[in-house]
Amino acid sequence: MFMTDRILVVEDEPDALELIEFNLEAAGFRVFTATDGPGGLQRVRDGGISLVILDVMLPGMDGFEVCKVLRRSPATSQIPIIMLTARAEEIDRVLGFELGADDYLTKPFSPRELVLRVRGLLRRLHPPDPAEAQVLTFGDLVIDPSRHEVKIHGNRIELTATEFRLLQLLAQRRGRVQSRDALLQEVWGYEKVIDTRTVDTHMRRLREKLGNSADRLETVRGTGYRFRDE
After folding, report:
1. Which CATH code is given to the segment(s) 130-227?
2. pTM for this one?
3. What is the per-residue pLDDT across 167-188, written as a single tens digit (0 to 9) for each?
């Protein structure tokens, strides 16, 4: 648990907002709230927010649009985002991931599950263990865990917390195939595997951002992914 982490919950349903706020505070987090899209966006821009829990259906500006705006700005692009929705359609989940959300929960959800997801995401933002802090260099691609930074040809690539952790894990285990189930458990911290398409969506976004270096991420049909370091 990271007692200094501050969570912003953007939710317009009073009962849901109260439930989330109560459970996060009980888990030791500092919680801030907003009840519409513009208000949530402004609170993040004010600074000091470690993670955003963002409902999809919001007045003024929906959660998808808020997520898109946050990901476009270098100042907020790496803040983890968990999206919430009352709809279970796959298109909503895929769209949220495509826009840069790190995780997704469908209502009704277990408050314990939400707290576990929050802790898992925040763990990626704190200093890595010394064994994981080594800078990884593959030609023009440089991965620096201590700075939480990826550069290609000296230019910084903006990755979300989840995208960075996914790339770092694959690079540290270069040459070895990582199954989708294993990636969900180690990168997302899921206790049980729910939907491996989550991995595929994030890999697609990661490849788009890596440009010419994306060919280092190999798909192993029917199994998972492997980082190629040749």
Report:
1. 1.10.10.10
2. 0.73
3. 999 999 999 999 988 888 888 7
